[in-house]
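Side project, low priority. Logging it here so it doesn't get lost.
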Amino acid sequence: MSSYAFWNNKGGVGKSFLCFVAASEYAHSHPDTDVYVIDLCPQANVSETLLGGYLTSPNAIHSLNTKTPRATVAGYLEARLNSPFKMIEDVSPYLCEPKHFNPNIPENLRLVCGDNLLEIISEAIRQTSQLSIPIDAWKQVLNWVQDLTVALRKQSGDRDTLFVIDCNPSFAIYTQLALVAAEGIVVPFTADDSSRRAIENVVALLYGITDEHTAPYARISFAKRAKEDGVSVPKLHTFVSNRMTLYEGKASKAFKAVNKTIKQTMDDIYNKHRHIFANPKESPSSTFIEIPDYHSACVVAATTGTPLHKLKPGPKIIAGERVQLNPDPLKKYRDALEQFVNCL
């Protein structure tokens, strides 16, 4: 697979940070591949990190927003709204090179920046998808971001490409555009029951697989229409158990208990619906990736826009506060995230 959407129907699970890690580490270890990040979350968190963190990103994002056209994902979608059923061949005006703003980022990483305007234009996008003419308006609109990936692949020529797409937790129209553009879904979660319910929602919303109480809604679901109209839907690729709580170097009992419940939930779904998984020959529980909680490293990386391969142990000053990165926890954190990136 060469395109991944990072999505869970629950916020606060570390989705945008994992997006940043996946894109920056993959670009670093694969210099002959063009890595494109498409930020389809109105909060633009992954864009902020790629553009240098909290100090430099506000000016960077402002400069992209004030260009004509806006050099953001909303700028691209505005152009599609102006001509809904005609592809845009030259998408370079909506693309930026994060390295120009943040020297820590690899040269082969490109960004279609997030934009809060995305939320404002979402209703216009939804209404365009409901037009009666042409008869395939919904399908064409749902493919807008997929069209963007096609244009970017063409721009890369003979070079390999990887797409990392950050999604909003909601199932808004712009999230649907993001998911349709992806081949696989990375589902980050934390070990709590709300994460389990959110993963069940991912399966219900995207594939129409649900319980008897909500089955009637499946008849009018996104999944049903996607199947009828021939809209591609990605497969469940990787489950990332993020921010694993450790006690004396091992996963805590509470974490293990909740994590076991989530694994069982996914295995139960897998046993009945293997076709929705990217690897139908392997149960999802056997491939869960566990990332230990190392808050200090996450804060330093996110607030300074420093990729993990450039993160060094030692004291750091963040917003006037001293943060210490210790070698052993940092290595364990890096090793776990490297295992995750190697799955892509």
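Brief comment: The domain at 3-341 is CATH 3.40.50.300 (Rossmann fold).
Revisit when time allows.
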